[in-house]
Amino acid sequence: MGEPIVCDMRETRALNVVGEQLRVLAPGAKTGSYEIFHQAGPEGSGPPPHSHDWDEAFYVIAGEIAFGVGERTLTARPGMLVHLPAGTTHWFRFGPGGGEMVSVTSREGAAQFFEAIDREIAPDAPDLGKLVQVAEAHGLKVGAP
């Protein structure tokens, strides 16, 4: 039997993922499978269309967050959960005043990607070519299929 994972968000370092503040609450290296994150972003922040081979779910805590899934756009508000199966091309944007959410992935991989983005990509003037390179190195496909 494994040890319990206890994380105090106030004690984790916020990663700057192209303007979004992201905290790794439970990395796959500790859970053996899934990962959990706290994400907070200013208005207009969020990733370009992308896909990856893990499921991802977002639970909105504050603000309105627009999600694009294929050709469809939906707005999630506090108390709503958006689940995206592996391989789904998607994006999101924090709405007016910014927002906050908790996300969960079905397997390990996203935490290492976010750490690489924080380490290698300038948040205020991101090099998009380098961003795509880092994403692809971590199993993400950037852009529409």
Automatic annotation (TrEMBL):
| Domain spans labelled Cupin type-2 | 42-93
A Pfam family found in this protein is Cupin_2
- Top-level taxon of the source organism: Bacteria
Q: Entry's InterPro entries?
A: Cupin_2 (IPR013096), QDO-like (IPR053146), RmlC-like_jellyroll (IPR014710), RmlC_Cupin_sf (IPR011051)
Q: What is this protein called?
A: Cupin domain-containing protein
Q: Which organism is it from?
A: Phenylobacterium montanum
